[in-house]
């Protein structure tokens, strides 16, 4: 019996809403959905992280896990290059994040260290600021070169914040955070995050906060010590995105390429079949290959969908591996 071909149409998943100590109410307002829990800090739009695999929410594949889609359609869904490189795994985790309070100061291991310790991909990521309250900050990188010994001393003194590079945050700002970069999202930011498919975080500092049971959250001082890039850089914040261009690349690394689209009317996009394409609608309402995608919604275009027509008015991000 001949295997069925995947349909050349967008796939929509149900978001996984994650309640966290620093979360708030922006995500549900932004997505125009009911807030069932308090302190929603993350909406996992597309995930293959174990235990939180995305579920198709509508259409011919409704109810299927993303892992089942890959099992059934393989390279037709994710692309031959992605299928070969990641051994049939979905390589990205796509989120919305609401920092009602500061996130912990943290770092993520690179692929080599994460594989050795956890049998997992590492975590390089990028942020696109959607909304920023007055005075909101992003903490990305160090404000001077450190030694590992200085880092440990600052953690013990509860003064690691003094070493963070601090950046004003505005809608449209882009930050690329390679694995190894110390970082935190400051209170008042709503952003889109595209990252490697990994949930490994080494927490360095957490402001002495306590969870619902009165316990302080675990710190990973020693694990982080081997993961941190202790160098200073002068380009932590990406150059401003050119608003005169309707289609512009805003992030590019070994694991993903991200473009921002300003749509007002119609546009046709053409892709190779080497990778899937993620489309996030950050503002407005847009038809993506015939499917209406509203602000705060994300869809996945199978790799066989090598051309797609967009129409409407809005701001989109596309991501490919």
Overall description:
This protein has 321 residues and is mostly beta strands. Helices cover 14% and strands 39% of the residues. It has seven helices and 19 strands. Strands 1, 4, 14, 15, 16, 17, 18 and 19 form an eight-stranded antiparallel beta sheet that branches. Strands 2-3-5-12-7-10 form a six-stranded antiparallel beta sheet. It has a three-stranded antiparallel beta sheet with strand order 9-8-11, with no helix packed on it. β14 and β15 form a beta hairpin. The two termini are 32 Å apart.
Q: How would you summarize the topology of this molecule?
A:
Blueprint: E1 11-14, E2 16-24, H1 26-31, E3 40-46, E4 55-56, H2 66-73, H3 75-78, H4 80-85, E5 92-99, E6 105-107, H5 111-118, E7 125-132, E8 137-142, H6 148-156, E9 164-168, E10 174-177, E11 183-185, E12 189-196, E13 202-205, H7 221-225, E14 247-252, E15 257-270, E16 277-288, E17 291-294, E18 298-301, E19 307-320
Antiparallel strand pairs: 1-4, 1-18, 2-3, 3-5, 5-12, 6-13, 7-10, 7-12, 8-9, 8-11, 14-15, 15-19, 16-17, 16-18, 16-19
Name a few traits of the molecule.
single chain, 321 residues, mainly beta, 8-stranded antiparallel β-sheet, 6-stranded antiparallel β-sheet, 7 helices
End-to-end Cα distance, whole Å, is 32 Å
Backbone shape: globular
User: How big a fraction of the residues is strand?
Assistant: 35-45%
**What is the CA-based Rg, rounded?**
20 Å
Order of helices and strands: EEHEEHHHEEHEEHEEEEEHEEEEEE
The count of DSSP E runs of length 2 or more, i.e. the number of strands, is: 19
Low-confidence stretches: none
Largest beta-sheet characterization: 8 strands, antiparallel
Please identify the structural class as seen in this structure. mainly beta
State the helix count.
7
Mean pLDDT: 95
Indicate the percent of residues in helices.
10-25%
């Amino acid at each position: 019996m001949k295997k069925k071909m995947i349909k050349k149409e967008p796939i929509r998943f149900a978001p996984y809403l994650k309640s966290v100590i620093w979360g708030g109410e922006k995500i549900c307002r932004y997505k125009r959905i009911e807030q069932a829990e308090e302190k929603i800090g993350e909406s996992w739009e597309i995930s293959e992280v174990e235990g939180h695999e995305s579920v198709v929410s509508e259409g011919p594949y409704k109810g299927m896990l993303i892992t089942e889609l890959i099992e059934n359609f393989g390279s037709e869904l994710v692309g031959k290059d992605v299928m070969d490189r990641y051994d049939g795994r979905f390589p990205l985790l796509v989120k919305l994040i609401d920092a009602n309070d500061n996130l912990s100061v943290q770092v993520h291991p690179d692929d080599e260290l994460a594989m050795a310790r956890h049998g997992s991909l590492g975590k390089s990521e990028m942020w696109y600021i959607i909304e920023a309250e007055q005075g909101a900050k992003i903490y990305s990188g160090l404000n001077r070169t450190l030694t590992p010994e200085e880092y440990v001393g600052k953690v013990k003194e509860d003064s690691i914040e003094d070493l963070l590079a601090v950046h004003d945050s505005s809608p449209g700002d882009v930050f690329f955070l390679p694995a190894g970069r110390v970082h935190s999202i400051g209170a008042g930011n709503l952003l889109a995050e595209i990252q490697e498919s990994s949930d490994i975080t080494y927490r360095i500092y957490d402001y002495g906060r306590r969870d619902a049971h009165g316990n302080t959250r675990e710190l990973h001082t020693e694990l982080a010590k081997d993961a941190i890039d202790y160098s200073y850089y002068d380009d932590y914040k990406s150059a401003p995105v050119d608003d005169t261009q309707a289609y512009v690349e805003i992030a590019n690394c070994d694991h993903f390429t991200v473009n921002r689209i300003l749509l007002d009317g119609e546009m046709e996009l053409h892709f190779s079949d080497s990778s899937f394409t993620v489309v996030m609608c950050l503002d407005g309402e847009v038809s993506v290959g015939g499917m209406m995608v509203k602000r705060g919604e994300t869809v996945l275009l199978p790799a066989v969908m090598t051309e797609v027509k967009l129409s409407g008015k809005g701001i989109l991000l596309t991501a490919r591996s």
